[in-house]
Design a protein that fits this description.
The longest helix has 29 residues. A hairpin with a 4-residue loop joins strand 3 and strand 4. By secondary structure, this protein is an alpha+beta fold. It is globular.
């Protein structure tokens, strides 16, 4: 519903791959909940109420799909079969190394879609050509080669394997990474593919916005289905805010809104004023929007966007980040799956 509205507003961002629809796939785990449930009070680790695979489209700024799982410790790969349903030929998918099985890559290629994915260490492949240097980008040296991967059906598409030797290590300590893609060289050079993969962090930024602005992680909610429902409702709220930002971009320009205005202040203003508006404005007065045609809605949103006082939403400037000092003598706390703890407790209660 929001896609045609954003397009009629002319509020979409320029596509990262012109002529195609970029989608980012990543997993999001809900943080450990409080120990309000009786079944969670006996364990030592923090109970994880669930996780989800999320599909995000940066062009429209919308979450396209979510695949929830109540087991907070389940592997992301166990849900990847569900992701294949929304794969279309005009898509260009981006995902990290945890979403890189041969079956998924081959199926995306078989459907005529494209992908840019970080190679998992355990992914088997056959080298067709050796790595050859193609130059440097901002973060390191780039090399490329041709490889093949094979799925259970015997399909073995020819892929490009792009290596990046990083000037600075990642947060996991990696000094090099490899990226697999089926995009043809005429559409995207190795350097361009490496730069495009860096933008995958857009979705992780969206996850941070979800938690900070839309309260997607409610620590007092322990039941997995309730926690996942709260996360999905936060996704709906995030998409509605994306519609508001698209209306602002259509009137004030994409660079002004995306670079200079704060999504935090916009979301905070909505949260602060919505309760009072529901009290002051009768419910019947809102029904006019449900009967609006798309053209009328577009005109209304643009008229409202014209009246927005942008100075109230200006981003706060900050200095350069300082490296976090290393802590000694601390151990990382373990986590357990809330769903498993509750199931085990039911089994124990039923056992005579």
């Amino acid at each position: 519903m929001l896609t045609p509205l954003i397009e009629q507003l002319d509020g979409a961002r320029v596509s990262w791959v012109p002529g195609y629809r970029v989608k980012i796939l990543d997993g999001n785990g809900i943080e450990a909940s409080d120990r309000r449930l009786k079944g969670l009070r006996e364990g030592q680790g923090g109970a994880l109420p669930g996780q989800s695979l999320v599909v995000y489209e940066p062009g429209h700024g919308l979450v396209r799909a979510v695949f929830p799982c109540d087991d907070g410790h389940a592997q992301e790969r166990s849900r990847l079969g569900l992701v294949l349903a929304p794969v279309h030929a005009e898509d260009r998918w981006m995902q990290d190394r945890h979403c890189c099985p041969c079956a998924l890559l081959c199926e995306i290629d078989r459907r005529g879609a494209g992908f840019i994915t970080r190679q998992h260490e355990g992914l088997p492949f056959a080298m067709v050509h050796v790595l050859r240097s193609v130059g440097r980008i901002e973060t390191g040296h780039v090399a490329e080669q041709r490889v093949q991967v094979r799925d259970a059906q015997g399909d073995a598409p020819l892929l490009r394997r792009i290596g990046v030797k990083l000037d600075q290590a990642t947060r996991d300590g990696d000094r090099g990474l490899y990226i697999l893609t089926n995009l043809p060289l005429r559409k995207a050079s190795a350097k361009r593919v490496a730069r495009l993969y860096r933008k995958r962090w857009t979705l992780e930024t969206a996850f941070q916005h979800l938690e900070a602005y839309c309260h997607s992680a409610i620590h007092t909610v322990g039941y997995p289905k309730a926690a996942l429902c709260g996360f999905c409702l936060a996704l709906v709220a995030y998409n509605m805010i994306a519609g508001v930002m698209a209306a602002l971009r259509s009137v004030h320009g994409a660079e002004t809104i995306d670079q200079e205005r704060s999504l935090y202040y916009v979301a905070h203003d909505i949260a602060q004023t919505s309760h009072g508006m529901r009290m002051a404005i009768p419910e019947d007065a809102w029904r006019v929007f449900s009967h609006m045609r798309p053209a009328e809605m577009v005109a209304t949103l643009r008229a409202l966007a014209q009246k927005v006082r942008l100075k109230a939403y200006r981003k706060s400037s900050r200095g350069p980040k300082t490296p976090r000092p290393k802590r000694e003598g601390t151990t990382k706390s373990s986590h357990v799956s809330t769903a498993k703890l509750l199931r085990n407790r039911k089994v124990k209660a039923a056992t005579p």
